[in-house]
Specification:
Helix content is 28%, strand content 17%. By secondary structure, it is of the alpha/beta class. It has one domain: Rossmann fold, CATH 3.40.50.360.
């Protein structure tokens, strides 16, 4: 019997959709759950993608911005596999995900991005995340929109972490 891996499911959720998906992933993977909470919470006005001056739009247009995170995920060395969940904003991960990924050393770990979206696809997510987790084994990003617990469990089981 193979040794059981320690799994972390870290996620950022602006509206609760990704939070729900993260709970299902954690259940399927038997992993610990960590919410990536911004030190300065996003308001509805901050998330108005139609407003060129909204916080989310400004952050997307300046990829060097790193929103602070309210707490740490603890001992990242204790985990072999890290699922990272987020809503897709403008076809990529929100900057706060960059803050999280740059805060830890993922070399030798398996990193599994999962996403939710109102209309974007995951086509470029692997490329963007790969740049932030050098030395990690990166699994293909998965869009979990509309996937129930059974389909999420089948996806997680199929990863062969």
């Amino acid at each position: 019997m193979a040794a059981k891996t320690r799994t972390l499911v870290a996620y950022f959720s602006a509206s609760g959709v990704t939070k729900h998906a993260a709970r299902e992933v954690a259940n399927a993977a038997g992993g610990d759950l960590f919410e990536i909470v911004p030190e300065q919470p996003y308001t509805a006005a901050d998330l108005n993608w139609r407003d060129k001056a909204s916080r989310s739009t400004v952050e997307n247009n300046d990829r060097s911005i790193r929103p602070a995170i309210a707490s740490t995920a603890g001992d990242m060395g204790a985990y072999d596999t890290v699922f990272v969940g987020f809503p897709i904003w403008w076809y990529r991960e929100p900057n706060i995900i960059d803050t999280f990924l740059e805060a830890y050393d993922f070399a030798g770990k398996t990193v599994v991005p999962f996403c939710t979206s109102g209309g974007s696809n995951v086509d470029k997510i692997d490329q963007y995340v790969a740049e932030l987790v050098p030395g990690a084994v990166l699994k293909p990003a998965k869009l979990l929109n509309g996937m129930g617990p059974a389909r999420i469990e089948a996806w997680v089981d199929g990863l062969a972490r």
